[in-house]
Write a structure and sequence with these properties.
This protein is of the alpha/beta class. The protein has eleven helices and eight strands.
Length: 288
């Protein structure tokens, strides 16, 4: 890829474009002339940075000498511009996106019919807890109890999650809990890729608006969605990872622990790492 910018700036811009893509934004302004802005679909990042193709044969007959370029010829940027030159910078625009609130995200979600899961749902399960939480837990999707109540993790797996949170010395209301998909998949099956694709931009916005110090992914669906990986969770469970400035820990889903209690020891090890990161101490046992 030809380098048009210092490598660090190029990397920053690439990261921003990926971020937009994660949010589901694929339309960008290329030009804001007198007639207004022109919208174009975002190109894939690699090609967006390639120089524009030169159709030499259609413009210049082979026999003619090539024109000497004017000294101060305006150089078109090799990628679509997101903002007009006189408007806010790309990075200021991003601040607006991260000024998002959970309320606004919930409003944007609306009575969602973006994927087929809406057909079987009773209630949308958006998320619950402290909008300024230092710690966010992300599960897979609502089950029957969550679908009935409109709240995440309130069934059997949810009770175990509450115990895990309390064992960390926290109360449920101090953290934020949400899921990759907001509607219950039929028969509690794993959400399908198109369902995850429709719903995950809302999850990304939720995390960005809360801006937690630590994200804990409960199970493979959450971890694979956020990290955009196909690697199995056992390959990175319990390791500190980084995602867009947040520390991320993937661990087993509480529903898995209900079926496989010995795995609780691994999860507790992972949660102790999270506690250390958040400066939480194990409650002292009172002397009797
Ligand atoms: N399992 C999940 O992944 N999320 C819930 O909200 C409940 C069970």
């Amino acid at each position: 890829m030809p380098e048009r910018f210092p490598a660090s700036l190029q990397q920053k811009i690439e990261d921003r474009l990926r971020y937009y893509e994660d949010l589901g934004i694929r339309l960008f302004y290329t030009d804001r002339g007198p007639g207004g802005a022109t919208l174009v679909a975002q190109e894939p990042i690699d090609s967006a940075f390639s120089p524009a193709p030169v159709h030499e044969e259609t413009v210049l007959p082979k026999s003619m000498p090539k024109p000497v370029p004017a000294k101060v010829a305006p150089v078109a940027p090799p990628f679509p511009l997101v903002v007009p030159p006189t408007g806010p910078s790309l990075f200021e625009t991003m601040e607006k996106v991260t000024d998002d609130t959970l309320l606004k995200i919930r409003e944007d979600l609306g009575e969602c019919t973006r994927c087929k899961l809406h057909r079987g749902r009773n209630k949308i399960v958006f998320g619950d807890g402290n909008p300024k939480a230092q710690l966010v837990f992300v599960g897979e999707g609502p089950g029957a109890d969550e679908d009935a109540q409109g709240l995440p993790f309130v069934g059997r797996a949810g009770k175990l999650l509450t115990q895990m949170i309390e064992a960390m010395g926290l109360q449920r209301k101090e953290v934020y809990i949400c899921n990759v998909v907001k509607c219950r998949p039929p028969e509690n099956r794993a959400p399908e890729p198109d369902e995850v694709a429709s719903c995950s931009p809302f999850l990304m916005r939720q995390i960005d608006s809360i801006h937690p110090k630590v994200i804990v992914c409960l199970g493979a669906t959450a971890a694979k969605t956020i990290l955009n990986t196909t690697r199995g969770i056992s390959q990175f469970r319990g390791e500190w990872l980084e995602w867009r400035g947040h520390k991320l820990m993937a661990t087993y889903h509480p529903a898995y622990l209900l079926r496989n209690p010995p795995a609780k020891a691994d999860v507790w090890k992972d949660l102790q790492k999270v506690m250390a990161e958040l400066g939480l101490r194990l409650p002292r046992k009172s002397k009797s």
